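Support case: user asked for a sample of complex input and structure output to validate their parser. Sending the pair below.
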Amino acid sequence: MKRLELFANRICFKFFNYLIIDLFYDRAFNKKIYLIMRLTVFLILIGIFQASAAAFSLPSDFDIDVKDKMVKDVLTEIQENTDYRFFYSDNMIDLDQRITIQARNANIETVMLDLADKSGLSYKIMEDNLIVISPAKEIVAITVTGTVISSTDQAAIPGVNVLIKGTNVGTITDVNGKYVLEIEGDNSILVFSYVGYLSEEVEVGDQSVINVALAESIEALQEIIVTGLSIERDKESLGYSVSQLPGEEVNQVKADNFASALSGKVAGLQVTESSTGVGGSTRIILRGITSISGNNRPLFVIDGVPMLSGYNEENDADKDGGDALGDINPEDIESVSVLKGAGAAAVYGSRAANGVILITTKKGAMKKGVEVSFNSTYLRDNPLVLPDLQNVYGQGGLRGRYPITNPNNTVLDHPSIWSYGPKMDSSTVIGWTGEDMTYASPENQFEYYYRTGQSFINNLSVELGSDNSSLRVSLTDQHTSGISPNNNLSRQTFSARGFTKQNIFELDAKVTYIHHNVENRPLLRENGGNAPLSLSILPRNISAQSLEENTTDEFGNERTWLIDETFGNPYWMLQNQGNYDIKNRYQTSFSLKTDITKGLYLLLRSGLDQATVEDKNWVNKGTKTSSNGRGNYSHSISTRAEWNSDFLLSYSNNAGQFSYGVSLGGNYRVDTYSKIDQWGSGYQIPGYYNISNLSEYYTNEYSSRYEVGSLYALGNVSYGDALYLDLTYRSDWSSSLSLENNQFNYYSVNLSWLFTNTFTLPDFFSSGKLRGSIAQTGNDTGPYRLENVYNVIQSPLPYSMVSIPGELKTFDLLPEINDTWELGTDLAFLKNRLLFNFTYYYSLAKNQIMSVPIPTSTSYSSKVLNSGELQNDGIEMQLDAVIINRPSGFTWDAMLIYTQNNTLVKSIHPDLNSIILNSAWQASIQAIPGEEYGLIYGYDWKRDVNGNRLIDSKGWPIQGDSIVSHGSINPDFTFGFRNSFSYKGFTLSFLIDGTMGAKIYSWGKTYKMLWGTDAETLEGREEWFETHDDNGFPIPGVEPGGYIFEGVMEDSGEPNTIPIEDPAYRGYLPYKDQVITESVLDASSIRIREAVLSYTFPSKLVSKWKMTNLTLALTGRNLYFFYKPADHIDPEAGYSSGNTGNGIEQSTLPSTRSIGFNLRVSF
Amino acid sequence: MMQILKKQKMKKLTSVVIAFVFVFGMNACDDRFEEVNTNPNGISDVDPAHLFATGARASFRSGVTGYDYKITSQMAHFYVGVFVERFIDQYQQDLSGGSYEDLYNAVYRDLIRYYNEILLLTGPGMEKEHPMQYAVADVMAVLSFAKLTDAFGDIPYFNGGLGNIGDLSPVYDSQRDIYVDMIERLGNDIEALKQADGTVGLIGQDPIYYDDPDLWIRFANSLRFRLAMRMRHVEPGIAGETITKCLSEPLLTTNLHNAIQIGVDGDNSQLFSPWYNSYSYYNFRISDRVVTQLSTTNDPRLSIYATPISDGTYKGFVNGLVEEVFAEAIDMEHSYPGEYLVGRGAPTYLMTAAEIAFLQAECALFGLGGSDANAHYRNGIELTMRRVGVDEDSITTFMATETATLSGTQEEQFEQICTQLWLAFAPNISEAYSMMRRTGYPSIPDRDGVITDPGDTEGELPSRLVYPLSEKLRNGDNVQVAIDNLNGGDELKTRVWWDVRR
């Protein structure tokens, strides 16, 4: 509008002059007018061009000699002799006064100064040789220019609104963040505002150049959120809780698995990394466990297409085969939307019970040009926590004696392979190799065994754009070596996405190809190949180096220091046991959107996600722990595919204060799986890992298919931008259920009230919302769970043998139903500088489908049944604050999230007392009606009413009468606390996250106590040795010393003073009595999860280098524990990402601290 | 014009949408869904003979490995475990790893699941009615249940193993009722087998007697004989009648009648002896009891049952040592069980002619039928020695020793019979353990607590196994009734119904 006014003025006073200026200067002018004008004026111009052609070539220094001429004539003369042009309003200025100006080779500044001095006018020289003349004493229309940049990365921000406060006069910044604004009147205040940034106000005063750095605002209520079915909505209109994270949150500090990068960032989301080697899986649970024994992972949807994200899709019992989430390339992520509540997810029906995580990938911008970005990361990983071992006593079983006396009998059995022997005194003894060895503690075997892990991750992306199309191609290459010596990963991701808008059609097509190759995933649990387990019990006087130097015996077989075949020589394993898996994954999707009429569109979409995995495992002949030394082998190829096709017809409109929308959609899903497997044992030629080399071999094939059809309807209505109502309804038809039971309906009702749009509240209250939601979602079941079949046994025998599976099926299964409701509020204060949101939710999952263990006396092991109820309730809170935001560019943002969830087993099948969810040794994690989900059960010691341990006459504690709960594997609460400081391109941010109140059963600890390697076993040993002779018998006349179990005597109630008669009983008694108490550890921790120090080079500087962005960052993950009561382990060091995999530790790999560099360049 | 075009476009789109919905037209999907959900990874129809082959193989293999190999081998003082299985040897009630559960799992899941399925399919009036298949499966079911009830006492028998027809919490039956029923069932099976035509019996799917009804009759009758002998002290009436019947019908009389499976010393673990497959290196030593018995009687089986140590002699390990004594013993060399017992080619038996010969000797000795106890006794020894591969010269030499002839009082002669039967049962030692409990021979002295560990039985040889924890968790009410009926609770030292003679 301002421009039009100016235009009118110009027409009046300097018509021809203006036209010349406009053609060369004002390209931003309204296109239509510009076109018409250009045509009509063009002919007129020709003459003038010719006339003034000479003037354009004049140098900027010029001669002037005017005497007593009117100002307007003087100006005309200057204009004719130079390429400067004047701009003035002659009804405001006295142009008729006469002045005299004489100068030779003067520059324009000098001349104008002189003129101003003599005429009393003021002037201003603008860009493009425009000089504005105004009356000196009056209010001047000044022109302000400047550049708006982001304070976080110093990059220019295009499209920023620049408004004169109190008016509707303003402009927006151009592509380079620049603006020009004419301002009439002094004391104006400019308001700079842009979505996602905090508004900035600047008093103009006498400044003509105002550069502004805007600070990024934290999540604002007006945010656009990607919701179910990838529909974008205003956050304020939602009646349920959704968290959206920008892509940088997951790609700045690289985690091995994309999902791990969500840890501590979303209230309600519990993420646990498994320390199972590179390419391992991550446990991810949203708002608690909803299925007692089924899948509890949220559904992942990428650009509207669901992804196969089953847990450990290629897992076998002994290693973590990774999960689909590891295939998601964080570099391609634009944003992640976490649909926590059922209200948000209900539109996904039978797959939504665990919540939904929507990933929107990047697509190129629709603007002309090419942008190339390069991102390079280098990381180094080192073990974060190593077991705390004793370094005083060496090998020996009972009576504190070193066991080996005979060079022909050095490989021994329990208890002689424990570390309950005499003090290591550097004497010479016969070692396990039969040779003399110094009886002393070698260097830490773990430090000797592990290496520094390294990662190189490089990403190149190219974006091409035009006015209505875009193409983005991205290539990522990752090479990671784990801390386990031969564990490597190589992953390549290629992704291309094209988008075009033609007429009423929008076409969006995408293809992603992921290739990975993981070598030697570490073996977990009680397995001969589990190196950390073997090393944790290695007698303290035996060095890892001696194992490395003696891997093979005279017959070419594995050589170990002990008879027990549970444990291998880790160095033999490195050479003779291995595995690899190669995954090729294709994700393609295609969508077509048509705007039929105003407000009505149709979307058709189809997407395929297919992964083929080749998995090979081998253990060489001669390996003691495998198939009686015959070795074994397996090799499989499996392909899993999910194909979804859907449509959505959507209409929206307004009527007065009301606006409404209705959508109708449908989806058809086909899941297929096939696997060909071959395995065997008995190598003919050692070390040649091929099925043809096996004397005993088997094959199997398996395939399955599963289809689900769905129809859904969505409706929303809002009133006066204050009340919003959303309704969804969905029906699913599943092939996995019987025809009578295969249709199910799900719904949600969501209400949001933006009360700040209804009432006027004090100024500090920026906005406020109350929301509520009621919904029903589900969880269906896999194929073939209705009817029993017989299997044929592959056998070399002359019989045809058929087997009967141990799991009984149930014909009339129903899907699991999850009824939920939630209430919450989102509040913003102090111009959105302080945001708070809170949600309380409740869910009741019914009809749990599970394979219920049934009594052995039925001849079957389990039956698939609907039974049981699981209840979850909890609160989620998030507080975001911009604590400091100085115009100088210094900002301090903070975010605090808090999550609390309780899962209660309301009931299980009436025939059962409990369901064992997981177990290790004598500890089991069970679901018991009326109790919390995931309690660790096992024997405790027998105790008196005051909880004192009862001790018998030998000084031994006594096994309790029955198994009891030792606490829950689920935390009482979790929190994340992020701080981010930025100043002139520097940003320091760190995330502290905490998990409080959970328990973990450490099988590794039981082992280390039994074997006497644990530092805790030192207690009382010194006293024992002082009071016993060399043969381990009490020295006569000396009161025997030793470890005294704390407790009271069973008979007298007096405190126990009797030491155990042998140091080894310290670990042996709990083992013998199956008491797990000492090995149930507090899994709480508070750690620095992530830290980043980054520097973004100023845009001025990088533009000189022809770049648009250059950022360097130093990143760290898992840096430091502020609090960790459990020794030996990182409580996240579970062995699997299953439902209860976080509750048991089995001497797997330690978690790692990862530190690295990151470089981002864009051109 | 534009409006009309738009309307037409709308109509088209609407019909596309409707068509789309129709494709989803869910009723049309029903047939398709049923087809989609048909499991391609198994068969829904089966010849019961194929199930029999699976069950019979398991009767020799998984049905015996946990119980015979790990538990009764130590209870019968044949082996000594030196690793986790040592807890069993220490008479401990709560076992790590729940080994007492092995037999329960094996019998119900690997054996009864198959035999009951065959009985359901081939019974009178059933879909695949087949008297011989039915009878043979029934004999095997009785053999399996007998082993289980001998170990635990009361078990789910009449309703046990019927999860597939919906009994998810089977009630427990008294051991007496089970025994009486088993004897009756075997009688019926013998009658049915007499009518059977072997050529259409198990169609080549019989790994035990190769479709021969006559051998099946001998086996069923011998099994009935074993059961009758086991209950003779507590139910002499029924036992006596049954023994008379048994002695009048064909029995296992030569080693060719043995129900045997021989391991193949090849390279295929499916063909190996189950003992070898479950043989964890170095986890067992041969018991000092066995070495002492064989060496003091110059028995040629010593070198077959045990391996020599490096000086060429044999040294057994003492069962049940307390920790301190054990710790010293374990660092020294001891004999392992011999190749015949635990090697790849080791045999497994369901029943042997030798056992029947010794039982006949017992019958003769106690006047229950037949005569010439000594002849049966000597026959039992010879059958055993030939079976385990003793050369004829050694047999002749041994048969001339006083050990090979019954002498002394009736009780002394009975002890001689039982001792030889004890040796004859190897490697299927669970029957030796049952015999020891029934007869008291070979007698195992109570453990003293100084050298040997009294465990949870006050030193007494355990008399039964405790019920599995899983059964208590999943079938608690019923198992509680069974425990209440036990005379002494669910303890290792509580005796089963027929265990009254000791």
